[in-house]
Amino acid sequence: MPICIPGQLPAQDVLSGENIFTMDSNRAATQDIRPMEVGILNLMPNKIETEVQILRLLSNTPLQVNVNLIRVDNLAPKHTPQAHMDAFYHDFSEIENKKYDGLIVTGAPLAHLPYEDVKYWDNMKDILEWAQRNVQSTMYLCWAAHAAMYHFYGVQRKLRDNKLSGVFEHKVLDPYNELLRGFDPYFYAPHSRFGYIDSDVYNSVKGLHVITESPEAGAYTVVSDDKRMVFVTGHPEYDPETLHDEYYRDLQADLHPAIPANYFTDDDPTKAPLVRWRSHGSLMFNNWLNYYVYQTTPYDLNQLAEKAQPKR
Fold it and tell me: Where do the annotations place substrate binding (predicted)?
């Protein structure tokens, strides 16, 4: 089944070129089924690139998925035309009375900024609280995973001296968890961050469990017992060239970045990347939609139960 996205969204042409079936809202209205309602709170500066990455992963499912793109504030985005935001994004005020089967909150390049100094932190807190009442299952990616841990549980991230960048091997710790169904015992995933929270800290929070981790990158996937919160500290959505582009961007900015680990062939940045994470990323999103969203959400979203409030 297709994903339903706004007509004329640039991602539509990209996905169609990859033989991924999408349709606009007018056609979706004629389908006599109950589609999944999924929101994407996109915090990344280059929103168009991130849209394509997330939508690609959501498309690999037999479920029909209606997608709403959500913005955290009205400030002009850094690398996205204002016209694009006005045409395709919803202000939070426009959707705060709506219920969603699933919500994805992306990362953000805010590594060294205290949460309270983030310009939209108050809005972010409001959305996190809203999701507790209005969303069946929420997936937090990278910075958003740490931000949610801080807001809900008072857990503060630590910062590395050097950025963790590269593609790392991870071990499945809970092979019977439905989010990991079909995973090999070991798999690869990209990371690009300074922040981290130790696995034992996640596991010390009642109702949370680390289900995949890496010796180099630490905890990667953390889930709640009720399946309504998923924390992913890396970037399963990344394109093959994303770490390449980040590396050369930082070089040009004289940030002296380390070469992303286990990414370029022979660790040589003049050679092509070794792409070995996309199958796991697709499978994770498919499992999330199926087992954490579709099989747990009520048919009538108005019957969505409020999540038990996390305890600090």
Answer: 163, 192, 249
Here the tokens at position 35 are 């589609």
Give the chain's radius of gyration (CA, Å): 19
142 belongs to the catalytic site: yes
List Cβ neighbours of 119 (8 Å cut-off, separation of 6 or more): 73, 75
Instruction: Quick: pLDDT tens for 176-212.
Output: 999 999 999 999 999 999 999 999 999 999 999 999 9
Spacing of C-alpha 221 from chain mean position: 11
Residue in 49, 51, 142, 246 annotated catalytic: 142
Among 170, 191, 235, 280, the active-site one is 235
Alpha-carbon distance of 137 to 224, in angstroms, equals: 10
What structural domains does the chain harbor? 3-157+196-238+279-303 (3.40.50.880)
pLDDT digit string (tens) for 109-127? 998 999 999 999 999 999 9
Is 84 in the active site? no
Q: Does residue 4 carry a catalytic annotation? A: no
